[in-house]
Amino acid sequence: MRLSIRAIAIQPRASSFISQLDHTFSLSKSNTCSQFNKSLFSWNQLKPNSSKCRFPKLRHRWKQYQGINHWEGLLDPLDDNLRLEILRYGHFVDAAYCSFDFDYSSLTYATCLYSKKRLLDRCGLTNYGYRLSKNLRVTCGIHVPTWINKMFRWNCTRSSWIGYVAICERKKEIIRLGRRDIVIAFRGTITCLEWLENLRATLTYLPGHVEAEESIGPMVQKGFLSLYTSKTTTHGSLQEMVREEIERVMKTYTNEPLSLTLTGHSLGAALAILSAYDITATFKNAPMITVVSFGGPRVGNESFRKQLEQNGIKILRIVNSDDVVTKVPGFVVNLDDVASQGDVNMGILSQWLHKRIEEMQLVYADIGQELRLSSKESPYLTNGDVAMCHDLKTYLHLVKNFISSSCS
């Protein structure tokens, strides 16, 4: 008996995940680096070219590569120009990881290691032609007991640096791109409270939206929304920071073509989608918005997906088939497949299950145009564990070497 329901545990063995933060998705890079050491020549080629950027001249075709036609005809086989653009945005995300202070014993833990002027230079992105204009912080909405906070101060960091806004300012790069590009880059989950927010997997309504009588309104994962909107007495919310900077940028560059590209890995991919939605909902004259998502989890329900499409947001979701994070949280239910099979009993059962899952607020939808890859196709990643399959370096490695779904 086949039900058209794809069910995945929301976060299996959560306590194990939290107790091993340094060894799983925190990108401490130990497992990944050991695997890639077998192919250093391959990973070295993923790094930004320190002497000269050799990216394609997009000019009048830039909207095509930003997804104006949903990347039709560019993904399978993967267009070489699009490949280079994906890798370029991946380097911006990698810079967010490289700039994060991972040292728990440091007084500057969970902050940015470099100043705004030095960050892109220290991460090898000097020749990309961008200037970092704003640092971004994220705040967790979870409040832990005071005694835990005193005993594990580093483990209960509520507010931490998560990424940045960078503006393309080099004239040659603006000409190559065909517009002035603004990049917002987000890292993935690192701190303990961020992990706890990830586990709050039930859906919740977006602010300003309520359940309609005939249909369910747009809903998103509770933990992601909490991270996006929470703030402290000393730090504003990520939502406020993004809105403030986008408003400033739009006022500064009013008489030239602009594009806004949000990119992130894992949790960062989810926050990129929430930020993109919030920008279009806040600014009616927003420039073209594209999200390049690496290994992102599910973010919202079907109504939220439709709202993103109506707002004109283009999302390229890069997925490793062997990455469990892209299959959580919640369930994806497709009743159309059952209806097409013509089995009345199965249809009734599926509708009943869908209703029960919906009541638990766990019915999600996959969002965006998908570029599906597989780490099993790479001879260097055949023994990859869960962390390896989710690592950003794995994604960049797969993008660099992917030709088409019919060619290994």
Beta-strand portion reads 15-25%
Q: How many strands, what sense, and barrel or not for the largest sheet?
A: 7 strands, mixed
Structural class: alpha/beta
What do the pLDDT scores average to?
Answer: 84
> What is the helix content?
25-40%
Q: Which sequence of strands runs across the widest sheet?
A: 2-3-4-7-8-9-12
Question: Could you name the ranges where pLDDT drops below 50 across 5 or more consecutive residues?
Answer: 1-41
Number of strands: 12
InterPro entries: AB_hydrolase_fold, Fungal_lipase-type
Subcellular location: Plastid, Chloroplast
Protein name: Fungal lipase-type domain-containing protein
Family: Belongs to the AB hydrolase superfamily. Lipase family.
Tell me what you see in this structure.
The protein is of the alpha/beta class. It has 17 helices and 12 strands. The strands form 3 sheets. Strands 2-3-4-7-8-9-12 form a 7-stranded mixed sheet, with helices on both faces. It has a 3-stranded mixed sheet with strand order 1-10-11, with helices on one face. Helix 9 packs across helix 10 (222-229). The protein starts with a strand and ends in a 7-residue tail after the last helix. Residues 183-331 form the Fungal lipase-type domain. It is found in: Plastid, Chloroplast. GO terms for molecular function: galactolipase activity; phospholipase A1 activity. One of its GO terms (biological process) is lipid catabolic process. This is Fungal lipase-type domain-containing protein.
